[in-house]
Task: structure prediction
Amino acid sequence: MRVALAQTDCALGDVDANTETARRTVEAAAAQRADVVVFPELSLHGYSLGAVPQDESIGAHDPRLTALSEAGPDVLAGFHEDGGLRRYNSAGYYSRGACLHTHRKLYLPNYLEWEERKHASPGHALRAFDTPHGRAATLICNDAWQPVLPWLAAQDGAEVLFVPTNSASGLAPGAVDTAEYWRDLLVNIARMQQCWVVFVNRVGNEGKASFWGGSRVIDPWGEVVAQAPEESAALTVVDLDIGAVRRRRREMPLLEEARFGLVSREVARLMSEGVD
Result:
């Protein structure tokens, strides 16, 4: 699988302009024979949705989205999804002009400058899905910070975890160094779930947020095999050996004994004690 990390900026609320940026990026990736192009979280809308004067959400099957995969490579794009009654922070996987899978962000941060629950509802499912190039799953930004989700994706057979992200720095005095947290977190996910991790962060500024880029790919042994520059737009193309996942999981079978019964019983107990 040849993956292109599309570390891009975007125009807040301007879906058409951002779609045009995505189209040009996909064409550039196609020229490098990429199989999949991965864009950041909310790449077609921007992050500060509260500053957009009207609802610009779009459906997962919007022709502007499906057309992105007609240039050759598959495309993973982030957008504010019109789900009918509710809106979602979503990432769709598109192949040959069709939507193969849509992931709706499950864990929406509501602290510091992040106010996602004002503009999106949380998703309700995590599913791995088959692509023409391997089995994958998507974790949008804060989803990857929840330890159970990468594990569930791996147990569902995911060989590649796509992690589209809007991670920023400098939001508040004393805030954590998000770049450092992401560095350690991504390596841990790759090592413990023994899979490829494709992290694509955006660049640019919105309000107080400065998005730092630093997109990267980590192999099933936890080694960073490619990294984009920080704070500037870039297209980074990387070859992933999907067979390495099976080899690594056979060398050290960490995932084989899942104990789903044990997990189910303990989760049920916690819920019965009042934990939601």
Remarks:
- The chain has a mean pLDDT of 95.
- The two ends are 39 Å apart (CA to CA).
